Amino acid sequence: MIKLGRNKILTLVIVTIIFSAVVLRFSLTDDLQIARSQLLRFYETRFDGCVINKIVTRRYPGGRGDYELFYTDCDNVAYPILFDQNKFVRLTVNSKIVKEANSVKFKLLADHITYGEMRHPEAEDSRGFKMRIVIVIYLAVFSLVLFLPNSNFQKKP
């Protein structure tokens, strides 16, 4: 049976408050929110032979490199070029894109027909991984404090 002294309980409460604040910070600060919202717009849009007329490069949030956005003649909205890593396709200016709404699969018409697959918007979220690491560390620290003897939490004479 584990005895909990007053100082040990206070230490456990402080550890829990600190780690709760870290988890809250990770859940509120979403580095990938802009990329995910652009990807969601691409996911929800239907392309029926729209011609790609411009490709621009942007910095990926969190310093993870660059990514590209493309514009079509159908509207003046930027769509991200974030494809499934196993289904990478190179988009080029003046090629046509065909995609159904709410689908990750698309067809690119240029010199030849190419089939590609974009990343799903829900896959662009790094918060879960960060929170899992924090929770594992929290459980380790909490367990350590819990199983240390109460004498470690008392003032030494």
Any key phrases for this structure?
36% helix; rod-shaped; 3 helices; 6 strands; alpha+beta; 157 residues; 2 domains
Structure description:
By secondary structure, the chain is an alpha+beta fold. The protein is 36% helix and 24% strand. It has two domains: 45 residues; 89 residues, no CATH class. The protein has a six-stranded antiparallel β-sheet with strand order 3-2-1-4-5-6. A hairpin with a 5-residue loop joins strand 4 and strand 5.
Task: Set out the fold topology.
Layout: H1 6-28, H2 33-44, E1 47-59, E2 66-72, E3 79-81, E4 96-99, E5 105-109, E6 113-117, H3 127-147
Oligomerization category of the chains in this entry: single chain
Please report the number of helical segments. Answer: 3
Low-confidence stretches: none
- C-alpha Rg, in Å? 25 Å
Head-to-tail CA distance between termini? 27 Å
Helix content: 25-40%
| Largest sheet composition | 6 strands, antiparallel
Spatial strand arrangement across the major sheet: 3-2-1-4-5-6
Mean pLDDT: 84
The beta-strand count equals 6
- Give the domain tally: 2
Indicate the structural class.
alpha+beta
Which sequence of SSEs, written as H and E, runs from N to C?
HHEEEEEEH
How much of the sequence lies in strands comes to 15-25%
Tell me the overall shape.
Answer: rod-shaped
